[in-house]
Specification:
Keywords: Signal. It comes from Polarella glacialis. It contains 16 helices and 17 strands. By secondary structure, it is an alpha/beta fold. Strands 13-7-12-5-1-2-16-17 form an eight-stranded mixed sheet, with helices on both faces. Strands 6-15-14 form a three-stranded mixed sheet. It is globular, with a radius of gyration of 22 Å. The relative contact order is 0.15.
Length: 468
């Protein structure tokens, strides 16, 4: 049986045997009888009904509700029938990855801005096998780079995301941020929800006017951060390093050799698309940042659960080796399930636009300076956070101030560390006097952080490369 709401987005080609194949793939991923995160539930967290109603059915006070090892999954998610229709949708912030300095600062920024603790998942499940063996390698225009470990990591992110979404209430909202290379820089819970609704509705209405699928209350689209290139099918050229050193703003791209000759759709999941160029032509949005970035996204749990169930089916059927390869295929074949935040109203991906093989450059490199100068006040320097409106600086290209930053590719080692350092300086009174937490869902425990822990990390590895 196709999940409710799925049929409204089914393309015309997906009928008969193809539809049956899609149902089989989806059913294998949507089964939750052995859901790892469902086993973390407990009915013994809030003894009094008053406390249960306050923490599970209404907008919770994080300090009161999620202290002492309690969290939403453990205490609430299996018992929401007790709310008896009195429950208000909540916002959950979740991140996939390992605990690191970046994760600690992200957890603080999430709690400061949105008032909810960060839910970390995937940190202890690296050993689990994938449901298929794919071609986990990457070819750019000048050669092949083996990415077996990273590719498996990124596909696993899709599958574990769906597993966690399965145990969250469908009416709630979720904001996802990569654990080791993102930062929330502004906003409140209410502002974030309003921005999400505005971006999603505008894109859906534009698509409807062009003849695409309209708005579906049961399947609100998931809003992803945007990129300037169609990664990983399209990669930044090695020539960009030399161009940036000559202060030229032109950015060249190259099509990945590993996908240029590949034929997609042989599984029957969608129409035949020959090579990455055809996939990207179908998945591209209009705007400043037209391509999907999986490092940051937001949506209603119901819509996100449906999307990640289907994208897992696409990855499985096509033996995808990268999460964004699968997402671009999904958009090409099932338009309407996701939209891209093309004007960086919610997320801005700070991308050096350099190839991975030569893009890990010093902080003073011209390519880094170009990204820092993309905002009205230099990114993550003194004065960046506090303008006349007490907000971080706007992007020059779009006139918007994103809620969260994602430091993609080589930017993890310079832009991310710059912004982490500036964040801890700007909010030093909070960080030096407070302890804060995240919930490690894999381990079922609370992880505590403090200024002393951050200082120890920096002394131990002041210039370390971040490992996702």
């Amino acid at each position: 049986m196709v999940p409710h709401g799925f049929v409204s987005f089914l393309p015309l080609f997906l009928t008969g045997a193809a539809e049956a194949a899609a149902e089989n793939v989806l059913s294998s991923f949507n089964a939750s009888s052995d859901n790892f995160y469902a086993r973390k539930r407990s009915a013994r967290c809030y003894a009094s009904e008053r406390r249960f109603l306050k923490c599970c059915c209404r907008e919770p006070d994080a300090g009161f509700c999620w202290s002492g090892g309690r969290d939403f999954l453990r205490c609430c998610s299996g018992n929401l029938a007790r709310c008896e229709g009195r429950r208000r949708p909540q916002l959950h912030a979740m991140a996939f990855g390992r605990v690191s300095e970046g994760t600690a600062i992200l957890a603080h920024s999430v709690l400061r801005s949105f008032g909810t603790p960060l839910l970390l998942f995937g940190s202890h499940r690296d050993h689990e096998d994938l449901p298929y063996n794919g071609s986990f390698f990457y070819n750019d225009s000048s050669g092949q780079t083996e990415l077996q470990g990273m590719a498996e990591f990124l596909i696993r992110k899709l599958l574990l995301t769906k597993e966690l979404l399965d145990v969250l209430p469908p009416e709630d909202y979720v904001v996802y941020l990569d654990a080791t290379d993102t930062l929330v820089q502004r906003g409140s819970r209410g502002d974030l929800l309003a921005a999400y609704a505005a971006v999603a509705e505008r894109h859906v209405l534009d698509a409807a006017r062009a003849g695409g699928p309209g708005w579906s209350v049961s399947r609100e689209p998931v809003v992803f951060a945007g990129l300037q290139n169609c990664h990983p099918l399209q990669v930044w050229s090695d020539e960009n390093l030399e161009l940036s050193e000559r202060n030229e703003t032109l950015r060249n791209v190259a099509w990945s050799n590993s996908t240029r000759q590949r034929v997609y759709g042989l599984s029957g999941m969608g129409p035949i698309l020959r090579g990455g160029e055809e996939v990207c032509a179908c998945s591209k949005f209009s705007g400043s940042l037209p391509y999907i970035d999986s490092g940051a996204w937001m949506g209603r749990v119901a819509g996100a659960r449906h999307l990640f169930g289907l994208v897992a089916g696409v990855a499985f059927s096509e033996k995808a080796w990268h999460c964004m390869e699968a997402l671009n295929l999904l958009q090409a074949w099932f338009p309407g399930l996701l939209v891209v935040d093309t004007e960086a109203e919610i997320f801005w991906t700070a991308d050096l636009q350099l190839a991975a093989r030569n893009g890990y450059v010093p902080d003073t490199h011209t390519a880094v300076t170009m990204v820092k100068d993309a905002t009205l006040r230099t990114l993550c320097t003194s004065g960046y956070w506090w303008g006349p409106d007490f907000q971080p600086a706007e992007l020059k290209a779009t006139g918007t101030t994103a809620f969260a930053l994602h430091f993609a590719g080589p930017g993890k080692t310079n832009l991310a560390r710059l912004c982490w350092a500036r964040y801890t300086t700007e909010f030093d009174e909070l960080i030096t006097t407070q302890r804060w937490t995240l919930r490690d869902l894999d381990a079922g425990r609370t992880v505590w952080f403090s200024f002393d822990i951050l200082s120890a990390w920096r002394l131990a590895a002041p210039h370390a490369t971040i490992v996702k």
